[in-house]
Design brief:
The complex is a heterodimer.
Chain A: E1 2-6, H1 17-28, E2 31-38, H2 42-49, E3 56-61, H3 70-80, E4 86-90, H4 93-105, E5 111-114, E6 116-119, E7 122-127, E8 132-138, E9 143-147, E10 163-166, E11 176-183, E12 196-200, H5 211-220, E13 223-226, H6 228-232, E14 253-257, H7 263-269, E15 274-279, E16 292-295, H8 298-308
Helix pairs in contact in A: 3-4, 5-8
Chain B: E1 2-6, E2 9-11, E3 33-35, H1 37-51, E4 57-64, H2 69-77, E5 82-87, H3 94-108, E6 112-116, H4 127-135, E7 138-149, E8 152-159, E9 162-169, E10 172-176, H5 188-194, E11 199-203, E12 215-221, E13 230-232, H6 235-245
Helix pairs in contact in B: 2-5, 3-4
Classes of the chains: A alpha/beta, B alpha/beta.
């Protein structure tokens, strides 16, 4: 039994979600290899080789993999898949894009966003926006799995000394090609990696009012998020979205401001260690999951909170 | 240009789904059903492409029980020209659904297939990508903007750090994200007209595909409940609790 973990990276650095995915691979057991597919990404392979518990890093360094397009990467993974009983990737937009394609190429039913490994073929995963947890057993020879990063504590980024094996590009596809990318530049931590997250909902009333959250975020070293309602209303871009169809976060502290607490939002944050809710409606469902609830007008409470931090 | 839009009948997003008493599955007795929200966005996008003169025909397809005809009628009321139901009484996994859709797409040979990125029941986020693999089409998932230029499409995708724009050769698979468009409501005259549109029912058994399940559902349970919290009276009290009790800020 051996597991292949698909590394998430930006050709320079390994993304932290890879470490949580290796943790899920540890829970399955057996040898762990990491595939680094990218362009001029030797530094990522070196980083992956240092990850605790990894036996081998497979490096596919080719311009075809620069932008991580699904068609070519799925073909590449398929070409080395016969060596593995399990193939894992983080359930990020990258993993969600590539793995189902691979899964169909292998004629395998993928298991999406696992939150617990019960045994080598049995896993727990949330369904219906996390309203229920299903335990499923796979009968496929190869298990293709995406991993919810927040459900697994990351392994150490150092301590390992894996060998690095280079492989050539295989099955490069021209079905899609990269045009451009707009990656939001921010001095704040990434939403899914932040220790503290402060999110705003429809109660913020406008995108301009998000500066009230940003002031607090900067004092706390926090990331800023939003509910789907706030994204739908056009207050902030979609990459702020926390919830069933957005990002899943589980920081030490989550502060929900002007968010009513629809099940779809709770799906993205209810595993946070400490939850604070600030809402003027005392019956808002968000208070049912909050450790500390403050019934107040956010336009008074936020400046006061900023002053006291 | 012909567009095929696969859709899914799911539990309405307002319903709080619970496990059955014996935890063998979720309890779907007497719950309200609806078209999956991301599928509504897919239909809307296809209809807009038709209204703009880019597309000539929009075909809505679903794989499911006979009652899925209700959601196909909704798709017709929203502007689809005709509909196809691949009828099955089994609850199929995404791979089997993708295989059934492959047969329809091979028969219809559309230039574009648009579907929702995820159904809000199983939260799998798989069918579009699987369909692209089975057809050997390019894929543009999580789309927030689509423009068709001749034999390719430029698609802006919602990715974790922001936006990525790719070009994909046609025919292609596109899956919709939240901000692609705001779906319309069906008007009463259009709901009436939809009743007369063609809805073709094909039994899945006639397609010659393997739909045997690969996964066994062992149990369904409620997630661990959070311990009940407290209400604080002031911002000052809140900051005190976070510093001294929860110790999450300093």
């Amino acid at each position: 039994m051996s597991t292949l973990v698909i590394a998430e990276h930006d050709n320079t650095n390994l993304k932290p979600a890879t470490l949580n995915t290796v943790a899920a691979a540890n829970a399955i057991g057996g040898a762990i290899h990491i595939l680094v597919a990218g362009n001029s990404c030797q530094s990522v392979a070196d980083e992956a080789a240092a990850v605790d518990g990894v036996e081998k890093v497979i490096l596919a360094d080719d311009s075809a993999y620069e932008n991580h397009l699904a068609e070519s990467i799925a073909n590449l993974i398929k070409s080395i898949s016969t060596d593995y009983s399990h193939i894992l990737a983080p359930a990020t937009t990258f993993g969600k894009n590539v793995l189902p394609r691979l899964s169909a190429l292998l004629d395998v039913q993928q298991i999406s966003e696992i939150t617990e490994v019960v045994s080598e073929d049995t896993f727990k995963r949330p369904i219906y926006a996390g309203s229920c947890i299903a335990t499923v057993k796979s009968s496929d020879a190869t298990k293709v799995i995406t991993v919810r990063a927040t459900a697994f504590d990351p392994v150490n980024a150092s301590g390992g000394s894996a060998s690095i094996e280079s492989i050539s590009a295989d099955g490069v596809s021209d079905l899609s090609s990269f045009l451009n990318e707009e990656i939001a530049q921010s001095d704040r931590p990434e939403l899914t990696a932040a220790g503290i997250v402060i999110s705003g909902g429809r109660g913020m009333q406008s995108g301009d009012n998000f500066h009230l959250l940003e002031t607090i975020a900067d004092k706390l070293g926090a990331a800023v998020g939003a509910s789907r309602a706030a994204v739908d209303a056009g207050f902030v871009p979609n990459d702020y979205q926390v919830g069933q169809t957005g990002k899943i976060v589980a920081p030490d502290l989550y502060i929900a401001v002007g968010i009513s607490g629809a099940i779809q939002h709770l799906a993205g944050m209810k595993d946070s260690k400490v939850i604070v809710a600030i809402n003027k409606d005392e019956d808002a469902p968000i208070f049912q999951v909050a450790d500390y609830g403050l019934v107040a007008d956010l336009f008074n409470a936020l400046p006061e909170l900023a002053d006291q931090l | 240009m012909k567009i095929v839009v696969p859709i899914k009948r799911v539990v309405d997003y307002n319903v709080k789904v619970r496990p059955l008493g014996d935890q063998s599955d979720v309890d779907l007795n007497n719950v309200k059903m609806a078209m999956n929200p991301f599928c509504e966005i897919a239909i809307e996008e296809a209809v807009r492409l038709k209204e703009a003169g880019t597309a000539t025909e929009v075909i809505a397809v679903t794989v499911g029980k006979s009652d899925s005809q209700e959601q196909l009628r909704t798709a017709l009321a929203l502007g689809a020209d005709r509909a196809i139901l691949i009828e099955t009484n089994s609850l199929l996994e995404p791979l089997a659904i993708a295989k059934a859709l492959t047969k329809v797409i091979e028969a219809e040979s559309p230039q574009l297939v648009i579907l929702g990125k995820q159904a809000i029941d199983g939260d799998n986020n798989q069918t579009g990508q699987m369909l692209a693999a089975l057809l050997n089409y390019g894929q543009a998932t999580f789309a927030s903007k689509i423009s068709i230029d001749g034999d390719s499409a430029s698609v802006t995708r919602e990715i974790d750090g922001g936006l990525q724009t790719i070009k994909v050769k046609l025919p292609a698979i596109i899956t919709t994200d939240l901000r692609l468009n705001e779906p319309r409501y069906a008007s009463l005259p259009n709901i009436m007209k939809a009743k007369k549109k063609e809805l073709d029912v094909q039994p899945i058994d006639s397609m010659g595909i393997d739909t045997a399940p690969r996964m066994e559902l062992l149990s369904v349970e409620l997630p661990a409940a959070r311990q009940e919290g407290i209400k604080v009276e002031s911002v000052e009290e809140l900051v005190g609790k976070l510093k001294n009790e929860a110790k999450v800020i300093s």
